[in-house]
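Service request form, structural biology core

Requester: graduate student, group of Dr. S.
Request type: structure prediction, single chain
Budget code: on file
Notes: please return the result as structure tokens.

Sequence provided:
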Amino acid sequence: MAVDAYRKALEAQPDYAEARANLAIVLRKVGRITEALAVLQKQLEEDSTDQKTILALVDCYVKSNQSANAISLLERSLAEQPEWVEGRLALGNIFFERKDYSAARKNLEQALRLSSKDLNIHLALAKLESQSGRATQAVKHLQFILDQKPDHIGARKELSAVVKLSSDQNGKDFSANLDKEQQILATLRRTLEDASTRQLDSLENAWNARRQNNLGKRAWLQIRNTRVLALFEKMDYSRARITIEELVQLDPQIGLGLRAMYFAIQKSDSLKPALHFWYKSIPDEENAWILAASGWMKQKLFTQAIDILNEAHTRLPQSLAIQNKLASAYYSFGVQQRKAGRNGDALQAYGLSIKLDPTHYKAYLNLGIIQEEEKLEEKALTSFRAAIKCKADYANGYYHLANLQWKLGDESEAKKNLLLAHKLEPKNQEVKDLAKKMGIKFTKKKKKATKLAN
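Core staff response, request fulfilled:
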């Protein structure tokens, strides 16, 4: 039996980490949770920061009705590793199961800020919103998941649960809890799982018969918008173009945007003027400005993107998305100027990027590299420190800081920062080369097993 084999291996060699890890896996699988707990606790004593061990131990605590211990362990671990997404998600899920929805929301929203595209986080938040009676917000998270992965079983099951819960709570149709547009999108999403053009036509006709009494212009435009996207997926571009031109007449804001998307897909020379007309037609829509700027940035035409975004920033000074996009454009322009040997323009661009986004760690790093080349060592040190302050696990930042400190004779600080760089990126060749110059030898750490041995 596998359990006996691993126990014998540990009796012969108590520090055999691979055997201990595999033993814990087997014990959990066969339901021997108490024994698994003992093994995992021993494992954690050797490496208190090992995330896989922590999550396995948390799972055992939860299965043995010791959720308080699981919460305590995760909170301690997150205090040491505040950007650990999986740990934050696990903590949020435990609070959700305990029906402490306030604490669950706090941790899940923090996890989402760390990883905004993580489908597991969106699913957890959808469940939380549903249980909190916020069906519309739940659908938004589920819609995000289905946009990325239409066959996501968990999201589809939760969408059905939201519909049922809404009906049970109100004794009414799904529309009692969701506004009409969200109801349409949910219906379309289910239909588009195996979307055929015939089904799309049928759905559109059904809604067409009711739109005067029930839907209104905004929802009807959303139907046509979704139809165009479905036709794009089917590469039925001729029918998509017909619908797009209808939309241009009905609502230029939506129609011109889809027309620009059509030209982009077709790689047409008409793309640039189409983008121009679109964002000019909707001066208060941040996404239009951002998409237009992105079109220029993809072509490495950063000055045009910066012009567009500066105008957008003036019109919509409250938009953080536009501000961050402008910071990104200045940063990219700085990189371009640096490659062309125009360090003065690059310095100015990086400075503007940082002014717009004080957390742009790459801009700080590149600023510091140029300052170091220009013999502005103190300013360079400040820039490198700012980079790692913005991103505490930025190995490149620690490397450049250590390199300059070593050049300036501060060997103690240089060694400390180089060791941090190596810990974050053990295979980084630049770090290894600098360590060789400084006479530092890194000690190798034994790998811990994560899979069952054959």
